[in-house]
């Protein structure tokens, strides 16, 4: 019997890649939750299937509109829920804190409460973030699941709320919830507000002579461990299908660690343009930065057997080529 899956935030980078993975590797019927005003760029390649009602349907709803969530759940009747929708940009959260808190905390509560009210029993993935750990001391690296919270942005605070709400609905109402704290993950379709994607986009714009050979940067000293988004969605699939254990919390992340400056240098090395200057843009600096993000992922790997497969170099080249293709065919604002 075919299963139904609901993906909130299907139009995002992760949601769209998860849809791709499930279409290829399962026979599930996919329902994608999206707002009426969401850009469909990341799922453009799926629209033909949706128009033909083959395997995938898009449902308009909003995490902050409870009635729309009730309707979406009644339509989809999911066996699995991947809750990926969020205001997911840490830097943006400093200027749009209320929106971030409302969407990520209240929105998550609304979704889980709607599932409870309808007496549905899906396996549920709540996507938290490594940003909940925030400012971590070197002696606490690598970061395991028991590391204390020290959120360094309104976004991180909102994900602490998301994390705790998931735990609450599991403990109080026995919803079959598992929480992940995913560390830095990137690849094609990554939003241009994130450092590595911004660098790739700027390089592509420079190569097309659409902007001057000048790259704007923020904090280049921040240390991150990178994973590929395509490895991330495979991990999420295993979370709900390989001996799932409701109530558990898992760190997930890659194995390649480097500074943001190292990322920039690698991307620059892949371009034929060699006279590119680098300048610090104060607007790209966070008031507080989670600058040591090295994960301990043994708990998840031991439970599911998951390991990242895609190398850092391929991830970055695919990201750069994604932007090269988009910039060649469209006009973009340099931001």
Describe this structure in words.
The chain has 335 residues and is α/β, with parallel strands linked by helices. Helices cover 40% and strands 17% of the residues. It contains 11 helices and 13 strands. It has helices spanning 13-25, 47-51, 66-76, 90-93, 97-117, 154-173, 195-207, 229-241, 260-269, 298-304, 312-329, and strands at 4-8, 29-34, 56-60, 80-83, 123-127, 176-182, 185-186, 214-217, 223-228, 249-252, 256-259, 277-280, 292-293. Helix 1 packs across helix 8 (229-241), helix 3 crosses helix 5 (97-117) and helix 7 (195-207) runs parallel beside helix 9. The longest helix has 21 residues, at 97-117. The N and C termini lie far apart (48 Å). 46% of the residues are buried.
What's the helix and strand layout?
Elements: E1 4-8, H1 13-25, E2 29-34, H2 47-51, E3 56-60, H3 66-76, E4 80-83, H4 90-93, H5 97-117, E5 123-127, H6 154-173, E6 176-182, E7 185-186, H7 195-207, E8 214-217, E9 223-228, H8 229-241, E10 249-252, E11 256-259, H9 260-269, E12 277-280, E13 292-293, H10 298-304, H11 312-329
Parallel strand pairs: 1-2, 1-4, 2-3, 4-5, 5-6, 6-10, 7-9, 8-12, 9-13
Antiparallel strand pairs: 9-11
Helix pairs in contact: 1-8, 3-5, 5-6, 7-9, 7-11
């Amino acid at each position: 019997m075919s299963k139904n899956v609901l993906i909130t935030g299907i139009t995002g980078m992760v949601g769209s890649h998860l849809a791709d993975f499930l279409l290829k590797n399962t026979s599930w019927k996919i329902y994608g939750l999206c707002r009426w005003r969401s850009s469909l760029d990341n799922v453009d390649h799926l629209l033909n299937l949706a128009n033909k009602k083959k395997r995938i349907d898009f449902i308009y709803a909003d995490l902050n509109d409870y009635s729309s969530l009730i309707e979406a759940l009644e339509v989809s009747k999911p066996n699995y829920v991947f809750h990926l929708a969020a205001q997911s940009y840490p830097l943006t959260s400093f200027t749009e804190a209320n929106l971030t808190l409302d969407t990520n905390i209240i929105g998550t509560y609304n979704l889980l409460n709607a599932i409870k009210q309808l007496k549905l029993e899906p396996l549920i993935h709540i996507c938290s973030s490594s940003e909940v750990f925030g400012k971590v001391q070197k002696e606490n690296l690598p970061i395991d699941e028991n590391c204390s919270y020290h959120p360094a942005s309104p976004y991180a605070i909102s994900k602490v709320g998301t994390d705790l709400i998931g735990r609450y609905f599991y403990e109080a109402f026995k919803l079959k919830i598992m929480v992940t704290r995913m560390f830095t993950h990137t690849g094609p379709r990554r939003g241009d507000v994130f450092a590595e994607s911004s660098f790739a986009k700027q390089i592509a714009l420079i190569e097309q002579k659409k902007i001057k050979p000048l790259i704007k940067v923020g904090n280049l000293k921040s240390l991150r461990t990178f994973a590929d988004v395509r490895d991330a969605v495979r991990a999420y699939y295993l979370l709900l299908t390989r001996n799932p254990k409701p109530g558990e919390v898992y760190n997930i992340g890659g194995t390649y660690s480097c500074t943001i400056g190292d990322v920039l240098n690698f991307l620059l090395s892949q371009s034929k343009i060699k006279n590119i200057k680098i300048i610090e843009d104060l607007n790209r600096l966070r008031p507080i930065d989670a600058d040591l993000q090295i994960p301990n992922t043994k708990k998840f790997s031991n439970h599911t057997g998951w390991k990242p497969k895609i190398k850092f170099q391929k991830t970055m080249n695919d990201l750069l080529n994604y932007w090269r293709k988009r910039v060649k065919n469209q006009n973009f604002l340099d931001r």
